[in-house]
Automatic annotation (TrEMBL):
It comes from Actinocrispum wychmicini. This is Protein phosphatase 2C-like protein. It comes from the Bacteria. Residues 13-213 form the PPM-type phosphatase domain. Pfam families: PP2C_2.
Protein backbone atom coordinates (compact mmCIF):
# COMPACT_ATOMS: atom_id res chain seq x y z
CA UNK A 1 0.00 0.00 0.00
CA UNK A 2 1.51 3.30 -1.13
CA UNK A 3 0.12 6.40 0.59
CA UNK A 4 0.41 10.11 -0.23
CA UNK A 5 -1.41 12.96 1.50
CA UNK A 6 -1.70 16.71 1.88
CA UNK A 7 -3.37 18.85 4.52
CA UNK A 8 -3.90 22.59 4.71
CA UNK A 9 -5.41 24.87 7.34
CA UNK A 10 -8.47 26.92 6.49
CA UNK A 11 -7.46 29.60 8.98
CA UNK A 12 -4.75 29.96 11.61
CA UNK A 13 -4.87 26.47 13.13
CA UNK A 14 -5.36 23.21 11.26
CA UNK A 15 -7.72 21.05 13.31
CA UNK A 16 -7.49 18.14 10.86
CA UNK A 17 -5.06 15.33 11.68
CA UNK A 18 -3.64 12.63 9.46
CA UNK A 19 -1.55 9.53 10.13
CA UNK A 20 -0.32 6.74 7.87
CA UNK A 21 1.75 3.58 8.09
CA UNK A 22 2.75 0.68 5.88
CA UNK A 23 -0.78 -0.72 5.79
CA UNK A 24 -3.12 1.94 7.22
CA UNK A 25 -4.20 5.55 6.87
CA UNK A 26 -6.43 7.72 9.04
CA UNK A 27 -7.96 11.19 8.73
CA UNK A 28 -9.59 13.06 11.60
CA UNK A 29 -11.48 16.33 11.28
CA UNK A 30 -11.65 18.10 14.62
CA UNK A 31 -14.94 19.84 15.37
CA UNK A 32 -14.29 23.56 15.77
CA UNK A 33 -15.63 24.83 19.08
CA UNK A 34 -18.49 27.30 19.06
CA UNK A 35 -17.42 30.86 19.93
CA UNK A 36 -17.64 31.78 23.62
CA UNK A 37 -18.39 28.18 24.61
CA UNK A 38 -16.86 26.48 27.62
CA UNK A 39 -15.67 23.16 26.24
CA UNK A 40 -14.45 21.90 29.60
CA UNK A 41 -11.03 21.04 28.14
CA UNK A 42 -7.92 23.16 28.46
CA UNK A 43 -6.20 21.43 25.54
CA UNK A 44 -8.43 22.24 22.59
CA UNK A 45 -9.59 20.58 19.39
CA UNK A 46 -6.20 20.46 17.65
CA UNK A 47 -4.70 18.63 20.62
CA UNK A 48 -7.55 16.14 20.71
CA UNK A 49 -7.37 15.34 16.98
CA UNK A 50 -3.59 14.86 16.96
CA UNK A 51 -3.69 12.79 20.16
CA UNK A 52 -6.36 10.48 18.77
CA UNK A 53 -4.52 10.14 15.46
CA UNK A 54 -1.36 9.21 17.33
CA UNK A 55 -3.10 6.65 19.53
CA UNK A 56 -4.72 5.07 16.48
CA UNK A 57 -1.42 4.94 14.61
CA UNK A 58 0.34 3.32 17.56
CA UNK A 59 -2.28 0.59 17.79
CA UNK A 60 -2.49 -0.01 14.05
CA UNK A 61 1.30 -0.34 13.76
CA UNK A 62 1.55 -3.50 15.88
CA UNK A 63 1.04 -6.96 14.40
CA UNK A 64 -1.65 -7.86 16.93
CA UNK A 65 -3.93 -5.18 15.49
CA UNK A 66 -4.62 -7.28 12.40
CA UNK A 67 -6.74 -9.67 14.43
CA UNK A 68 -8.85 -6.86 15.93
CA UNK A 69 -11.68 -4.93 14.34
CA UNK A 70 -11.19 -1.26 13.50
CA UNK A 71 -14.10 -0.41 15.79
CA UNK A 72 -12.35 -2.10 18.72
CA UNK A 73 -9.11 -0.26 17.98
CA UNK A 74 -10.94 3.07 17.78
CA UNK A 75 -12.75 2.32 21.05
CA UNK A 76 -9.44 1.77 22.83
CA UNK A 77 -7.83 4.85 21.29
CA UNK A 78 -10.71 7.11 22.35
CA UNK A 79 -10.55 5.64 25.84
CA UNK A 80 -6.79 6.20 26.03
CA UNK A 81 -7.07 9.86 25.02
CA UNK A 82 -9.79 10.36 27.61
CA UNK A 83 -7.67 8.81 30.35
CA UNK A 84 -4.78 11.10 29.45
CA UNK A 85 -6.71 14.24 30.48
CA UNK A 86 -9.45 13.01 32.80
CA UNK A 87 -7.66 14.60 35.77
CA UNK A 88 -7.46 18.07 34.21
CA UNK A 89 -10.59 18.39 32.06
CA UNK A 90 -14.35 17.90 32.31
CA UNK A 91 -14.96 14.90 30.09
CA UNK A 92 -18.69 15.11 30.78
CA UNK A 93 -18.99 18.51 29.11
CA UNK A 94 -21.21 18.11 26.00
CA UNK A 95 -19.06 20.66 24.15
CA UNK A 96 -15.77 18.87 24.78
CA UNK A 97 -13.44 18.37 21.77
CA UNK A 98 -14.41 15.75 19.21
CA UNK A 99 -13.58 14.67 15.69
CA UNK A 100 -14.66 12.56 12.77
CA UNK A 101 -12.70 9.45 11.82
CA UNK A 102 -11.96 7.98 8.39
CA UNK A 103 -9.76 4.91 8.55
CA UNK A 104 -8.53 2.18 6.21
CA UNK A 105 -6.29 -0.81 6.84
CA UNK A 106 -4.94 -3.41 4.43
CA UNK A 107 -5.17 -6.82 6.03
CA UNK A 108 -3.79 -9.59 3.83
CA UNK A 109 -6.11 -9.72 0.80
CA UNK A 110 -8.74 -7.27 2.08
CA UNK A 111 -9.01 -3.58 2.89
CA UNK A 112 -11.02 -2.77 5.99
CA UNK A 113 -12.64 0.63 6.41
CA UNK A 114 -14.30 2.67 9.15
CA UNK A 115 -16.18 5.97 8.84
CA UNK A 116 -17.48 7.93 11.82
CA UNK A 117 -18.84 11.38 11.03
CA UNK A 118 -18.68 13.29 7.77
CA UNK A 119 -15.17 12.33 6.62
CA UNK A 120 -15.71 9.76 3.85
CA UNK A 121 -13.69 6.90 2.43
CA UNK A 122 -13.90 6.59 -1.38
CA UNK A 123 -12.84 3.51 -3.33
CA UNK A 124 -11.64 3.53 -6.93
CA UNK A 125 -12.48 0.06 -8.19
CA UNK A 126 -10.58 -1.72 -10.93
CA UNK A 127 -13.77 -2.02 -12.98
CA UNK A 128 -13.90 1.79 -13.18
CA UNK A 129 -16.60 2.33 -10.54
CA UNK A 130 -16.17 4.89 -7.77
CA UNK A 131 -17.67 3.84 -4.44
CA UNK A 132 -18.01 6.41 -1.62
CA UNK A 133 -18.58 5.24 1.95
CA UNK A 134 -20.27 7.97 3.98
CA UNK A 135 -21.89 8.56 7.35
CA UNK A 136 -24.80 10.94 6.70
CA UNK A 137 -26.15 11.30 10.24
CA UNK A 138 -24.79 14.84 10.62
CA UNK A 139 -26.25 15.84 7.24
CA UNK A 140 -29.66 14.58 8.37
CA UNK A 141 -29.57 16.72 11.51
CA UNK A 142 -31.86 19.66 10.67
CA UNK A 143 -31.84 21.58 13.96
CA UNK A 144 -29.82 24.70 14.77
CA UNK A 145 -26.12 24.23 15.36
CA UNK A 146 -26.46 25.13 19.04
CA UNK A 147 -28.69 22.07 19.56
CA UNK A 148 -26.22 19.60 18.03
CA UNK A 149 -24.53 19.03 21.37
CA UNK A 150 -27.80 17.60 22.71
CA UNK A 151 -27.84 14.79 20.13
CA UNK A 152 -24.12 14.07 20.07
CA UNK A 153 -23.26 10.48 20.98
CA UNK A 154 -26.76 9.52 22.09
CA UNK A 155 -29.02 6.83 20.59
CA UNK A 156 -30.58 8.09 17.37
CA UNK A 157 -28.21 11.05 17.29
CA UNK A 158 -24.91 12.01 15.69
CA UNK A 159 -21.94 9.84 16.63
CA UNK A 160 -18.39 11.23 16.69
CA UNK A 161 -15.09 10.44 18.37
CA UNK A 162 -15.08 12.40 21.61
CA UNK A 163 -15.28 11.28 25.21
CA UNK A 164 -17.50 8.26 24.57
CA UNK A 165 -15.50 5.18 23.51
CA UNK A 166 -18.73 3.35 22.71
CA UNK A 167 -19.22 5.75 19.76
CA UNK A 168 -16.87 3.45 17.84
CA UNK A 169 -19.60 0.80 17.81
CA UNK A 170 -21.76 3.12 15.70
CA UNK A 171 -19.22 3.67 12.91
CA UNK A 172 -19.86 2.58 9.33
CA UNK A 173 -17.54 -0.38 8.78
CA UNK A 174 -16.83 -2.96 6.12
CA UNK A 175 -14.21 -4.73 4.04
CA UNK A 176 -13.49 -5.09 0.33
CA UNK A 177 -11.15 -7.47 -1.55
CA UNK A 178 -7.91 -5.67 -2.36
CA UNK A 179 -7.93 -7.34 -5.79
CA UNK A 180 -11.04 -5.33 -6.65
CA UNK A 181 -9.64 -1.85 -5.95
CA UNK A 182 -6.94 0.31 -7.50
CA UNK A 183 -6.97 2.89 -4.75
CA UNK A 184 -8.85 4.41 -1.85
CA UNK A 185 -9.09 8.02 -0.71
CA UNK A 186 -9.87 9.59 2.64
CA UNK A 187 -11.09 13.18 2.94
CA UNK A 188 -12.05 15.77 5.50
CA UNK A 189 -15.10 17.85 4.65
CA UNK A 190 -12.90 20.80 3.72
CA UNK A 191 -12.24 18.86 0.50
CA UNK A 192 -15.60 17.14 0.01
CA UNK A 193 -17.25 20.55 -0.25
CA UNK A 194 -16.27 20.16 -3.91
CA UNK A 195 -19.12 17.63 -4.07
CA UNK A 196 -21.39 19.21 -1.46
CA UNK A 197 -21.19 22.78 -2.80
CA UNK A 198 -19.45 23.11 -6.12
CA UNK A 199 -20.96 20.53 -8.44
CA UNK A 200 -18.12 18.03 -8.58
CA UNK A 201 -18.75 14.30 -8.57
CA UNK A 202 -16.82 11.70 -6.61
CA UNK A 203 -15.45 10.53 -9.94
CA UNK A 204 -14.17 14.05 -10.67
CA UNK A 205 -12.41 14.17 -7.33
CA UNK A 206 -10.80 10.77 -7.73
CA UNK A 207 -9.61 11.59 -11.24
CA UNK A 208 -7.81 14.75 -10.10
CA UNK A 209 -6.43 12.96 -7.06
CA UNK A 210 -5.09 10.07 -9.13
CA UNK A 211 -3.57 12.27 -11.83
CA UNK A 212 -2.23 15.24 -9.88
CA UNK A 213 -2.15 14.20 -6.23
CA UNK A 214 -3.67 15.39 -2.94
CA UNK A 215 -2.14 18.89 -2.90
CA UNK A 216 -3.60 19.69 -6.32
CA UNK A 217 -7.05 18.55 -5.19
CA UNK A 218 -6.86 20.93 -2.22
CA UNK A 219 -5.75 23.70 -4.58
CA UNK A 220 -8.83 22.99 -6.70
CA UNK A 221 -10.95 23.33 -3.57
CA UNK A 222 -9.45 26.72 -2.76
CA UNK A 223 -9.99 27.88 -6.34
CA UNK A 224 -13.67 26.87 -6.17
CA UNK A 225 -14.06 28.72 -2.84
CA UNK A 226 -12.61 31.91 -4.32
CA UNK A 227 -14.69 31.86 -7.49
CA UNK A 228 -18.03 30.68 -6.08
CA UNK A 229 -18.89 32.80 -3.04
CA UNK A 230 -22.22 32.94 -1.24
CA UNK A 231 -22.36 29.68 0.70
CA UNK A 232 -23.12 29.81 4.42
CA UNK A 233 -20.49 28.81 6.96
CA UNK A 234 -16.74 29.15 6.77
CA UNK A 235 -15.41 30.39 3.39
CA UNK A 236 -12.38 28.10 3.85
CA UNK A 237 -12.14 24.99 6.00
CA UNK A 238 -9.23 22.78 6.99
CA UNK A 239 -8.70 20.42 4.07
CA UNK A 240 -7.07 16.98 4.05
CA UNK A 241 -6.82 14.44 1.22
CA UNK A 242 -5.16 11.02 1.37
CA UNK A 243 -4.63 8.58 -1.51
CA UNK A 244 -3.68 4.93 -0.98
CA UNK A 245 -2.73 2.87 -4.03
CA UNK A 246 -2.60 -0.90 -4.28
CA UNK A 247 -0.42 -2.84 -6.72
CA UNK A 248 -1.89 -5.75 -8.66
Amino acid sequence: METTFATEAGADVNEDAVAAGADFAVVLDGATAEPDTDAGCRHGVRWFATQLAGRLAARLSVDESRTRSLADILHDAIEAVGMSHVDTCDLGNPCSPSSTVALVRQRRDHVDYLVLGDSPVVFARRDGAVQPVTDDRLARFDGPWCELRQVRNVPGGVWVAGNTPAAAEHAVVGSVPVADIAGVALFSDGVTRLVDRYGWTWRDMMAVLDKNGPADLIASTRAAERTTPGFPGKPHDDATAVLCRFSQ
